[in-house]
Design brief:
Helix content: 25-40%
Number of helices: 10
Structural class: alpha/beta
Number of strands: 11
Radius of gyration: 24 Å
Distance between the termini: 40 Å
Strand content: 15-25%
Amino acid sequence: MADPHHAPSGLTHLDPEGRVRMVDVGDKAVTTRTATAEGVFRTRPDVVTMVAGDALGKADVLATARLAGIGAAKKTSELIPLCHQIPLNSVKVHFDLDEAAGEIVVRATAKTTGRTGVEMEALTAVSVAGLTLHDMVKAVDPLATMDGVRLAAKSGGKRGDWTREGHGGIADDDEGARSNSGPAALDVGRTGVVVVSSTAAARGDRPDTTGPAIEDWLRARGFSPVEVHVVADADVATAVTEQVRRSPAVLLTTGGTGVAPDDRTPEATAPHLTLELPGVAEAMRARGLAATPTAAMSRGLAGFAGRTLVANLPGSTGGVRDGLAVLDELLEHLLDVHAHGGGH
């Protein structure tokens, strides 16, 4: 992120009359310049396992994505109109696979010796490598996403080194550093998401009362922000997948846990659980059984999807109340032990 005390006076790609221009870099010093960009490809844990084992029935997935990223960096000036053509000393594309989280971190470092920087080449390499990953896995996961593509670091040029963590200096080149828009995923603090599976509520045929009740419960325990998403029963799998990929601290669902044909919340949840917590699910059912025998029909699951604690609550007000009562006694301990280990 650019230092606000050293912000440029205007957009370098506009002349004093506001017309688009290509920046003249002829007077800049020839120095060795590098830039590193990064992004996160989000899919399912099983898909990352397939990529790691090259089990997708295509060519080597990572090798293909790496070559695509390198090739794209070499063509950056053809893709982005005002970028200079520059000789690249090297382009390196690296992948860090996190099978538990269902993520592949893509990083690219570009290097040149010249008068302008290589930020856009690094960003283009990450973007196209991520798109290639999407192309390679779309047959098994069309919901995969490439998030948070951003500049991570640069060096060389008049203003020297810059890193996202340090927020020091600004890029002095025509492809200058952008402000930090942050990752597409939710912040890694106490964030909460509620998914309500109810076709009637999604259509507006009846008001949703369970979502707001869970939201209030989470906020009272210090979770913020908390989002509530009301979806039709047929859309719950898509909704759960999308929210798991954003990695909130807690994801609670309500509805769709019974035995009706459109009750599919457990099926939507199961593929994402990297650590199941059957005891928590059984405790919630047992709590409900104390009030009504029909609580035994709930098929709700609980567990961790990467760093996210996920629990399926029934769709009734009483079922939500019973489920939250169980979580009230376990929530902090579960989050702390899973994140840090020990202490139990």
